[in-house]
From TrEMBL:
<feature type="transmembrane region" description="Helical">
    <location>
        <begin position="182"/>
        <end position="203"/>
    </location>
</feature>
<feature type="transmembrane region" description="Helical">
    <location>
        <begin position="284"/>
        <end position="305"/>
    </location>
</feature>
<keyword id="KW-1133">Transmembrane helix</keyword>
<dbReference type="GO" id="GO:0005886">
    <property type="term" value="C:plasma membrane"/>
</dbReference>
<feature type="transmembrane region" description="Helical">
    <location>
        <begin position="26"/>
        <end position="49"/>
    </location>
</feature>
<feature type="transmembrane region" description="Helical">
    <location>
        <begin position="149"/>
        <end position="170"/>
    </location>
</feature>
<comment type="similarity">
    <text>Belongs to the NrfD family.</text>
</comment>
<feature type="transmembrane region" description="Helical">
    <location>
        <begin position="215"/>
        <end position="234"/>
    </location>
</feature>
<keyword id="KW-1003">Cell membrane</keyword>
<feature type="transmembrane region" description="Helical">
    <location>
        <begin position="61"/>
        <end position="79"/>
    </location>
</feature>
<dbReference type="Pfam" id="PF03916">
    <property type="entry name" value="NrfD"/>
</dbReference>
<dbReference type="InterPro" id="IPR052049">
    <property type="entry name" value="Electron_transfer_protein"/>
</dbReference>
<protein>
    <submittedName>
        <fullName>Formate-dependent nitrite reductase, membrane component NrfD</fullName>
    </submittedName>
</protein>
<keyword id="KW-0472">Membrane</keyword>
<feature type="transmembrane region" description="Helical">
    <location>
        <begin position="254"/>
        <end position="272"/>
    </location>
</feature>
<keyword id="KW-0812">Transmembrane</keyword>
<dbReference type="InterPro" id="IPR005614">
    <property type="entry name" value="NrfD-like"/>
</dbReference>
Length: 313
């Protein structure tokens, strides 16, 4: 017979408070928002640089999916709302200290801009397309004439949207894993990487495809640097943040994070893209699919692990 003296009930499940309020809707919404931001960023960038004709896949072709990405993401966000009929109240005020206010207004601006961007390039997919309505025809001519200004607005909003997807988490100070300023740049780099990978599928030339393969490799290196920097910061911080990062360094999220996000989502596609740059025949869709999978898993794992991290009372 063994006698045990219990001095704490902390070993019991669910003793310490943790969140279970953000499910699949939020990481899906953040992934689609980051992907849309990445595609629009490069589309606007090459208009500003005067290279639209050289990189038509990035500027004219890939953005056609952006309105659909944003609508699906907003639908997922809407499904997550508890009081769905009151979503409009986000647009009755502007709170600069609120990430949700920034996100709501950024999406309000970038969604119609994404539709306008597709509309002015509609002939890329439908060469015989003509605007029969006089008003629509005049609007199309106006935006074509002011395309450079539209590109500057688009690139600013796309950067804000990409960073916002991470700041939405990092502003939640009650969860130690999310309480880091690295999440904003990390999610922006991840969104740009996903956008660059997607553009590879729409590239009109081998030169364009190889360019975005190089860009994607660079962005993956930046992501890895930010992840290492974030983990080092946690390990040098308070005990609760050490406990939070230990979920990825021997804890329950170690295998999913390092296998799905780092290995399959970053290292393998980077290797495949490098081999393609060395003139090896690689199926184009394979590294693209892996990058998108890794980007999606990053948001799911950060969302769920962050809700499990908690302060000790």
């Amino acid at each position: 017979m063994r006698e045990e003296l219990i001095t704490s009930g902390r070993m019991n499940p669910n003793i310490d408070p943790h969140l279970e309020i953000w499910h699949w809707h939020i990481p899906l919404y953040l992934f689609l928002g980051g992907l849309a931001a990445g595609i629009l960023f490069f589309a606007a960038l090459y208009v500003i640089l005067g290279m639209e004709s050289k990189y038509a896949g990035a500027v004219r072709r890939a953005p056609i999916i952006v309105p659909f990405l944003l609508v699906i993401g907003l639908a997922a966000l809407f499904l997550d709302l508890r009081h769905k009929l009151y979503f409009w109240q986000l647009y009755t005020t502007i709170k600069l200290q609120s990430p949700m206010s920034w996100g709501a207004w950024t999406l309000m601006g970038i969604t119609p801009i994404s539709v306008i961007w597709v509309a002015i390039h509609i002939q890329e997919y439908f060469p015989k397309w003509e605007w029969k309505n006089v008003i629509l025809k005049d609007l199309n001519a106006f935006f074509l004439k002011n395309k450079l200004a539209l590109a500057w607005v688009t690139i600013v909003l796309s950067v804000i949207l990409g960073i916002y997807t991470g700041i939405l988490f990092s502003a939640f100070n009650a969860r130690p894993l999310w309480n880091t300023s690295i999440l904003g740049p990390l999610f922006l780099a991840s969104g740009l990487s996903a956008g660059a990978a997607t553009i590879i599928l729409f590239a009109r030339s081998k030169e364009e495809r190889l360019l975005f393969a190089r860009i994607d490799i660079l962005l993956i290196v930046i992501e890895l640097f930010l992840i290492i920097h974030m983990f080092m910061g946690f390990k040098a911080s308070t005990q609760v943040q050490i406990d939070a990062v230990n979920m990825f360094l021997g804890g329950q999220y170690t295998a999913p994070f390092w296998i799905f996000v780092v290995v399959l989502g970053m290292l393998v596609p980077a290797l495949l893209e490098f081999l393609e740059l060395r003139h090896k025949k690689i199926p184009v869709v394979l590294p693209v699919a892996l990058v998108l999978f890794g980007s999606l898993m990053l948001r799911f794992i950060i969302a769920y692990a962050g809700q499990m991290s908690r302060w000790l009372y």
